[in-house]
Each structure stands twice: as structure tokens, then as C-alpha cells.
Design goal:
mainly alpha, 1% strand, 3 domains, 648 residues, Serine Threonine Protein Phosphatase 5, Tetratricopeptide repeat, elongated
Length: 648
């Protein structure tokens, strides 16, 4: 057995055997894998996975160009180069098989859990004023790590590939906190090494996700309790935080730049006033505490309401304020509770709503970093039990961990695919406009391969129902655009009414885009749909103008170039049409249809040799991949129509 010195957290007598240390970690990791098992066979979801991964190409690889993009892009409102790098590595191994990405997310979460066990073990020892038996500390640390690892609030961060930044940033966040505690409690000869390690881990966390900008404040809280270092010479105590503060300022600036570069991600102060933001921040403190205690009805989006000055928001917000006052009043008798609460508020602050970005009021993923102090409190309570009844503490840990794991397993099932995710959300909140829109859009996209016109029509009607329900709840532009897309696809199934349906499609999409312009928020995807609808009714010049805006915003997305090429061809601008096909081929170089179009457009432009090369490439691809019906016949016909090669 060993004894733990409370002021340093170091073992001062004989260390326990390796197995006694490894056993709780193996049990926690095994429980974690079992809890998140449904994630390992899950698919991508239409909840930013499409715009980040399945419809986006710039991250797919590890070349110098890919790396330059990763370290300079603000794609989707985030600066996260290390997260992009990890995703690029996954792509080189797994391609677009979502299961590999999910496995990586879960593996990183497992490493974070192990790191947190060591941090919890040291912090719990430090928080106890008297000597504590090591078995009590280790049982408390095991409970804290398990509580963090398999709590249902973790599901969104682990199961959502887009949130790779959460799990990766969380790993380095925990390592930075652990290194700081070691720096503060080590002998002077080792402090510099641990200080440097803290800086490196903080940098890596910030390169993964900007939420780590709060680390300097977290270090201050730790120094007050449980490290009790606030009485050090003030100059030294403050100066050692300055490098971390500089890092936070730099990455805070980059995070704001990234948000401003997104499609109107930052909500303007005139639309969401400071009073609303303060209520939202206080409400979020109560919300995550409540969901930590009672983790039910978890959904990926809780939308920002028109007004927060309602009892359902004000009562929890005031409760958080009152709780803060109570904890402050009892700070001398129970300093751990106030320290944990302040650390929680500090970590949550960037996503609390004060700097509102996006449509969410609160989101489960924001608990990944912020509720770590709650896990330590739970571990501390179990440690207190273990000092009196070791068996009782172990039973409590097992019951709590298994119960949470069962809930997490059930919640993970909701993230299997887009349909299960949004149907689960609608089961909790039938009026969720985001769920209605995303489910309707997914039905549109994934039903396009249905060849039976009856079943395809039924799918379009289902999508239309979701969009119409969304319009009843809220007059958001995307529902008009969705209804326009439904009308456009119905036109392909109903030739007798095709002209009328395409006009309806254009009217709906134009209405949505104009409404977005009035709100100051027009997504590039909306303009793309408008350009395609204009092309569908023969307004080729207007289509070309809208699509030119699209390709400037989406230079690496081939879809804009594909449709713009058709608009150019409709105006007999064969050279420009061929140019945009070539830009699309940079990404989709094995697409036989694109090579056919390139050859056709080059032929129309009188570029016979270039046309012949492109058409022969189209034929070669059809021999390798039969997924392009009709392309071989068309390419052969175009080749025959070309002038014969002159004899040398």
C-alpha cells in the first residue's frame, strides 16, 4: 500500500502494483467502449458533416497544399488546424468510411478519460486537508473519470464527427490542466519542465478548438483551490500566467475572425441584445447542471427563441444566480463547491451566449469541457464515502457508472444516421425547425436514387410535409427553398406539369433568398439552388450571374462549377463552359460525365485535339466504372463527329 501526501499528491511510501493501477482504467475504458458501441457503426449525419466532409474536398489529404489549407482556413466559422490534420490522417486510412472516423473519435475520448483519471487522482488528494488513504483517492478518481466518460452529455461530442475538435481539444485541455497541477506541486528542479509541458498542451488544445482560451482563468481557480498558491508573491503568480494569456488573446482573435468569416454565424447585438445574452448565460449555467443531474431528452439543437424573457428561461437563470450567492456565502466551509462552480462558469463562458454565434440556445457539446469540475465533485463525494465504507463506495461507483453507460448507449443509437438523429429530435421537440429542415433535406438528397416514381413521389411528399410544418412554426427562408426543391424534383416526375412546377420552384427559391437578404443572411447553398432554378426555366444569363457568385464563395466545390458550365453552354460560351468543367475535374477527376462534357464543349469551341483527348478519357473511365450509363455511347458519337486526324 502507499500513502498520499495531500500537499503534493505524491506517493511517499511503497507504490501499489501496476495491476492495481491499470485495473480501474481498463474497466472504465471497456465500459466506455460498450456505452458508445452504436457509434462505431454510425454514418455521417446531415448536421454539418455534409458541408465539412462529404461535400467538401480541401481537407482530403496530407500534401503541402492540404496542410496549408488546414492551417489557414476559417471554414464553417472555426480555426482548428490540428483537428483538420487528424481528419486528414483518417481520410488517408479510411477514405470516406464514417466508421473509421467514429472509431478515432472514441479512441481520443478514451485517452482523455485516462488522462482525466490521473488529474482527478492528484486533484482529489490535494483537495483533502488531511492524509487520505490511497484507496479512497483512487476510488474517487475512478468514479470521477467514469462519470465524465460515460455520461450521456458526452454523446454529441463523441458521436458527431464534426465535433472532432471537442474530443481532440478536450484531450489536450485535460493534459494541460494535469501538467499545470504538476508544475505547481513539483520540486523546483522539475517545475520548468512541467511549465513547458503545460504551454505545449495548451497550444495543442487551442489548435484543436478555441474553447481552451479559458485556460489562464482555470489556472487561477486551481491556484486558489485546491493548490492554495494564491498567497505566492503576486508578481510571480501573475507573470507565470502571461504566456498563456498571450496565447488566449491570439487564438481568441482567430476565433472571432473565423466566426465573422462564416455565413453570418455571429448574431448581431441589435438582434440579440445584451440583456438577452446575460439571461442566456445564466440559463446555460442552470441548464448544463440540470442535464448533468438528470440527463434525459437530449437533442442536438435547442434553438434560440424570439424572447428569453419568459418564466421557462428566467426561473432557471435566477436559480443559477441564487446558487452562486449561496456557494459564495459558504466558501470558507466548503471551498471546493465554489471553486468547481467558478471553474464551470469560466470554461463555459465562450459558449454561454454572451458572444452568440449560431442558432442554438444551448448545446450538449458545450458540456464536454465545462462539466469536468462536476465530475471532480462526484469523485470527491465518493472519496468521502470510501474513507468510511470502501465497499459502499465501490458499489456506488459501479451502479452510477453502469446506469449512465446504459443511458449513453441509448442516446448513441440516435446518432446512427441522419434519419434516426432528426426523428429522435422531433420525438422530443416536434416543433424543431432545424430538425424539420434537415430531415426534409436528407429525404430529398437520399431519395434521388429511387427509380420507382411512386415511391419517389411519396418521399417528396414526406419532405414537403416537413418543410410546410417548419413554415408554420417559423418563417425561415430555408423552408421556402426546400419547398422549391421539392417542386423542381416533382417536375422531373411529372412532364405534363413540368413547366408550371419549375416556375413554382423558382418562385419559392427566389422568395427564400430575398427573405434571407432582408435578414442579412444568405447562404451560398441558397444562391446555388437559385442559379440552378433559373437555369431550369431558361433564364441563362441570370443563372450565370448567380452561379458566378457561388463559385467565388466555393472555389473548391465542383458542384458550382458543374452547373455554371451548363449555364455557359446554354449561352453558347463554349470556352467558359469548358473552363468550369476543368475546375470541377480538379476534384472529380474520375467522373466520366464531366470528361464527356469537356470533350463536347471543346469540340463546339473548335478545339478538336483537346476534345478528342477528353472524349477518349471519358470512354476509358466507362470501361473501368460502369456507373455512368449512356456516357460511352454519347462519347463514341461525339468522337465520330470530330474531323478525322490529318495524316502526318
Amino acid at each position: 500500500m502507499s500513502r498520499t501526501e495531500p500537499q503534493t499528491g505524491r506517493d511517499v511510501t511503497t507504490r501499489a502494483g501496476f495491476w492495481s493501477r491499470a485495473r480501474p482504467l481498463l474497466l472504465i475504458v471497456s465500459l466506455c467502449v460498450a456505452a458508445f458501441a452504436p457509434v462505431l457503426t454510425a454514418d455521417w449525419v446531415q448536421w454539418d458533416d455534409d458541408r465539412n466532409f462529404t461535400e467538401h474536398w480541401a481537407w482530403r489529404g496530407l500534401s503541402l497544399d492540404h496542410l496549408a489549407w488546414m492551417f489557414t482556413t476559417f471554414h464553417m466559422g472555426h480555426y482548428q488546424p490540428l483537428s483538420w490534420l487528424s481528419l486528414g490522417i483518417d481520410w488517408t486510412v479510411f477514405g470516406l468510411d464514417a466508421r473509421g472516423f467514429h472509431a478515432t473519435n472514441l479512441a481520443i475520448h478514451g485517452f482523455t478519460t485516462v488522462a482525466f483519471w490521473f488529474v482527478a487522482r492528484r486533484v482529489l488528494a490535494l483537495a483533502t486537508a488531511s492524509t487520505v488513504e490511497p484507496h479512497a483517492v483512487e476510488i474517487g478518481a475512478t468514479c470521477a473519470a467514469a462519470f465524465f466518460a460515460v455520461h450521456p452529455l458526452r454523446v454529441e461530442s463523441v458521436a458527431w464527427i464534426t465535433e472532432r475538435r471537442d474530443v481532440l481539444g478536450g484531450l489536450f485541455f485535460v493534459l494541460a490542466v494535469g501538467a499545470w497541477v504538476r508544475h505547481a506541486t513539483s520540486l523546483s528542479s522539475h517545475r520548468r519542465l512541467w511549465y513547458a509541458a503545460t504551454f505545449v498542451f495548451a497550444l495543442l488544445s487551442l489548435l484543436s478548438k478555441a474553447s481552451a482560451i479559458v485556460l489562464p482563468a482555470v489556472f487561477v481557480v486551481l491556484d486558489v483551490w485546491p493548490l492554495r498558491r494564491a498567497k505566492l508573491a503576486s508578481a510571480r503568480w501573475l507573470l507565470e500566467k502571461l504566456p498563456f494569456l498571450a496565447l488566449s488573446c491570439l487564438f481568441g482573435f482567430l476565433a472571432m475572425r473565423a466566426q465573422l468569416a462564416a455565413d453570418s454565424a455571429v448574431v448581431a447585438i441589435d438582434r440579440h441584445g445584451m440583456a438577452d445574452r446575460l439571461v442566456q448565460a445564466a440559463y446555460s449555467l442552470a441548464f448544463y447542471l440540470g442535464k448533468t443531474v438528470w440527463p434525459t431528452d437530449l437533442v442536438p439543437i435547442r434553438e434560440l427563441p424570439a424572447s428569453l424573457f419568459e418564466a421557462r428561461f428566467l426561473v432557471p437563470a435566477m436559480s443559477a444566480v441564487v446558487l452562486t450567492a449561496i456557494l459564495f456565502a459558504f466558501r470558507r466551509r466548503h471551498p471546493a463547491f465554489l471553486a468547481a462552480w467558478i471553474a464551470y462558469a469560466v470554461i463555459l463562458s465562450p459558449t454561454s451566449g454572451v458572444a452568440q454565434a449560431g442558432p442554438q440556445l444551448v448545446a450538449d457539446r458545450y458540456s464536454y469541457f465545462s462539466t469536468l469540475p462536476f465530475a471532480l465533485l462526484v469523485g470527491g463525494f465518493v472519496m468521502w464515502i470510501a474513507r468510511r465504507n470502501r465497499l459502499g463506495a465501490r458499489v456506488a461507483t459501479a451502479v452510477l457508472s453502469i446506469g449512465l453507460a446504459v443511458l449513453t448507449n441509448s442516446q448513441s443509437e440516435a446518432w446512427r444516421n441522419t434519419r434516426t438523429l432528426w426523428e429522435h429530435t422531433l420525438g422530443v421537440d416536434p416543433d424543431s425547425s432545424v430538425a424539420r429542415h434537415n430531415l426534409g433535406s436528407w429525404i430529398l438528397v437520399h431519395g434521388a436514387s429511387e427509380v420507382d416514381p411512386v415511391r419517389r413521389t411519396a418521399q417528396l411528399m414526406e419532405a414537403r410535409d416537413h418543410f410546410e410544418h417548419g413554415l408554420i412554426v417559423t418563417q425561415r427562408p430555408q423552408f421556402d427553398i426546400g419547398l422549391g426543391l421539392v417542386a423542381g424534383q416533382l417536375a422531373d416526375l411529372d412532364p405534363a406539369h413540368a413547366t408550371e412546377l419549375r416556375r413554382e420552384a423558382l418562385e419559392r427559391i427566389e422568395r427564400g433568398v430575398r427573405a434571407g437578404e432582408a435578414l442579412g443572411r444568405v447562404e451560398t447553398a441558397w444562391r446555388f439552388q437559385l442559379g440552378a432554378a433559373l437555369l431550369g426555366v431558361g433564364r441563362n444569363a441570370d443563372a450565370r450571374r448567380e452561379l458566378a457568385i457561388v463559385v467565388r464563395a466555393w472555389p473548391d466545390n465542383p458542384q458550382g462549377h458543374r452547373v455554371l458550365a451548363l449555364a455557359c453552354a446554354a449561352e453558347h460560351d463554349w470556352t467558359d463552359a469548358a473552363h468550369h468543367v476543368e475546375l470541377a475535374l480538379r476534384v472529380q477527376e474520375t467522373d466520366a460525365l464531366l470528361w464527356l462534357r469537356l470533350g463536347t464543349f471543346r469540340a463546339r469551341a473548335g478545339q478538336v485535339d483537346e476534345a478528342r483527348v477528353a472524349l477518349e478519357r471519358a470512354l476509358d473511365l466507362t470501361r473501368v466504372n460502369p456507373a455512368f450509363p449512356g456516357v460511352a455511347e454519347l462519347a463514341s458519337g461525339e468522337l465520330k463527329a470530330l474531323p478525322k486526324k490529318r495524316s502526318p
